[in-house]
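Q: My labmate handed me this sequence with no annotations at all. I'd like to see what the chain might look like in three dimensions before we decide whether it's worth expressing. Could you predict it?
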Amino acid sequence: MQPVVEKLSGLERRVDLTVSVADIEKEVQTQLKRVARTAKIHGFRPGKAPLSVIERSHGPSVRYDVINGQIGKTLDKVIADANLRVAGTPNLEPKTEDTDEGVLAFSATFEVYPEIALPDLAGLKVTRSTVSVGDAEVQKTVDVLRHQRTIFKPAADRSAQAGDRVKLDFKGTIDGVAFEGGSAEDFYFVLGQGRMLPEFETAATGLKAGESKTFPLKFPDDYGSAAVAGKQAEFAITLKEVSAPELPEMDADFAKSLGQAEGNVELLLADIRANVEREAQARAKNRTKASVMDALAGACTFDLPKALVDSEIASRTAAAREELKQRGLPNADTVPIPEDTFRAESERRVRLGLVVGELIKSADLTAKPEQVRARIEDFAKSYEQPAQVVTYYLSDRQRRAEIESLVLEDNVVDHILAAAQVTDESVDFDTLMGTH
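A: Here is what I predict for the chain of 436 residues:
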């Protein structure tokens, strides 16, 4: 009699399964005989141990594997016959009540993927972002590059001001007692960069080389060091050197420092423009994609497999712990992270993954080889040896799969943009790049 799949609630299903004890024992004996041919048992030559000895040493593990295999095959057949798509790993529980003699009975509980009805794409409202890159935007990037290569020259005759690099000695005390990390000699920092607490920077500003000052400083309550957080301290500083910033000229040497071998400033500017345009367009494209995905997720309502959501939460929690490790948190592996921290976003990601997969299948949006190659070639333009990058990505399956995934996303976004109600939006360059 064919097992009946019972619907519990939502996407959860259950089915009762049985396997013949005789069939299991027959397969166990076959497996044990196979093991006996090569088994190394103490006191016997390899392959010469009696089957009874093999039964004692290997029987439990072989029997366990055979039972799992038989149950697995039976469950797979039931799932295939019922045309079900199982989400996650089924949970198997043995049954002892109302069980016929000569059989082992189990109850398998599992979730199935939902039936997904795609929304009417014509009803979606999305925003397509665009950005303009002109001479002013290129110049902003050039200015950033120049500031990153600032040269500091001694300015012994004037007071320290914002942008200057200062060298000083300092000693901090709390209730007259020095504390760990509160003292240093020949310490450098640039005024105005926010590396030091505001009171510290204010005290150093206006001093000349050789001058000293004592001032109070209250550490913020959320300061990184718990030993001093929220406490009132007193610092004594002695300024030893003031260096004024000087930006490098936009000349051949500057061009060479940025990888332009010939020192050609015009070619350097052309490269910078191309890179800025590429980055700006990529960010505008990502902004458009976010709008499309938000609209798509908001238009879909269906039950989500708990197993998939839990897996996504576990993945994001692991990533969060890894980030905490990178930040130096000593108890990153044990610090409590509430499960609900990532639940909403995990549910959104699972929902989008399911509906996007269904859309790709129904509209035949699979990534074509020529699309993948074109995407790789465009990506490789930002490298010094583009041809080598293309070859590397095409020959590495994992890297190629990453690009294929991006192409799939592009295909989905383009498909929806072609059908949806689209509003075009010109985004300010600085807003898009996060510079203000």
